[in-house]
């Protein structure tokens, strides 16, 4: 089970730290990712991190503003969001998959991030 928290209402330029607590399995052998879905749009991946070497990947719109991290000891996943923009408004989801798998089978329920000017 994955449960996100940390969303909220934030002014443009502000920051948020999303957290995702994982239960039922240990993160050590899992790659992780954050996705978001804005109203009327398809869900998109914004950041991911491998399990073996900690390599990260960020979607172009969030490069330099978002940072994905993990704490395997605490079974936690994080997404630090800086310099929020109106277009970052979306429901944010954390996800996990075993290293080497294509699909993410484990998802949280989402946390709403709303940015206003």
Major sheet: 7 strands, mixed
Tell me roughly what share of residues is in helical segments: under 10%
User: Order of helices and strands, N to C?
Assistant: EEEEEEEEEEE
Can you give the mean pLDDT? 95
- Total number of β-strand segments? 11
Instruction: Tell me the number of helical segments per DSSP (H or I, 4 or more residues long).
Output: 0
Helix- and strand-based class?
mainly beta
β-sheet strand percentage: over 45%
Question: What separation lies between the terminal Cα atoms?
Answer: 34 Å
Shape: globular
Q: Pick out the low-confidence regions.
A: none
Radius of gyration equals: 13 Å
Which labels suit this protein?
single chain, 117 residues, mainly beta, seven-stranded mixed beta sheet, 52% strand
What order do the helices and strands come in, and which of them pair?
Elements: E1 2-5, E2 8-11, E3 16-22, E4 30-37, E5 44-49, E6 56-58, E7 66-71, E8 76-81, E9 90-98, E10 106-107, E11 111-116
Parallel strand pairs: 2-11
Antiparallel strand pairs: 1-3, 3-8, 4-5, 4-9, 5-6, 7-8, 9-10, 9-11
What does this structure look like?
This protein has about 120 residues and is mostly beta strands. Strands 2, 4, 5, 6, 9, 10 and 11 form a seven-stranded mixed sheet that branches. A hairpin with a 7-residue loop joins β9 and β10. It is built from no helices and eleven strands.
């Amino acid at each position: 089970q994955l449960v996100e928290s940390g969303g909220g209402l934030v002014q443009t330029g502000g920051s948020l730290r999303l957290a995702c607590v994982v239960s039922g399995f240990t993160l050590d052998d899992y790659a992780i990712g954050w996705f978001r879905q804005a109203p009327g749009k398809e869900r998109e991946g914004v950041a991911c991190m491998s399990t073996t070497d900690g390599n990260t990947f960020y979607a172009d719109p969030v490069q330099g503003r978002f940072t994905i991290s993990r704490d395997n000891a605490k079974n936690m996943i994080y997404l630090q969001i800086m310099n929020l923009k109106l277009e970052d408004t979306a429901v944010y989801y954390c996800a996990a998959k075993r290293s080497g798998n294509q699909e993410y089978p484990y998802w949280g329920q989402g946390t709403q991030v709303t940015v206003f000017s």
